[in-house]
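If you are new to this repository, start here. Below is one unmodified record pulled from the training split, so you can see the exact layout before writing a loader.
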Amino acid sequence: MMGQCGITSSKTVLVFLNLIFWAAAGILCYVGAYVFITYDDYDHFFEDVYTLIPAVIIIAVGALLFLIGLIGCCATVRESHCGLTTFVVILLLVFMTEVAVVVLGYVYRAKVEDEVNSSIMKVYDEYNGTNSNAQSRAIDYVQRQLQCCGIHNFSDWQHTHWYEESKNNSVPISCCKAAGCTGSLTHPEDLYQEGCEALVVKKLQEIMMYVIWTALTFAAIQMLGMLCACVVLCRRSRDPAYELLIAEGTLA
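And here is the target side for that same chain:
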């Protein structure tokens, strides 16, 4: 009775973890997609496309977790030694992949600031204030979303080609924080005071931290899954009660 109780408990926990894996798969895909969508809004501020590698990996891991959950459930219910072994091996590979995501996340998080610093001035120089210009759309979007103006502050606009050509002593309307603001530098109190460079870096680093913490959380869950699967495998091979349960189920 005690043996069967232990077996049932181990299998129940394992099935429950597989259901968590299915939920985790959806969450991982969502986080990866969120990173892609958000980075698309800021892609003019960094040139290293490899920054998106952690997001690509985490989406692939999410898709794989759907398959892992299916294999794990079937193997647990059928008490399949081969299925559970395959389940543990795949979980181990996914765990190693998520560790790689965490490492890459920290590496690229450290590179974000250098990437933004090296490209943001160029983006502002290419601003022309029209919707047809990708740089203009990117800057206007960032300034509205992050409530910032210029690189370090609104006075940076005075050193851009757009300001020199417009000759109206104003900054883009996207710098305005008050209704009725025209962007005129004669009313600086109507403009966002903080520069965009630091806020863009902070935003991109926050996004990378979402990826890192998501990978760490589900890596911990997968370790628990591997532990439970190993316990079930050990019981199956060594516990007479487990063998008896299988035999009784077969005879039934």
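Two things worth knowing about this chain: Residues 81-125 form the longest helix (45 residues). Confidence is low (pLDDT under 50) at residues 1-7, 240-252.
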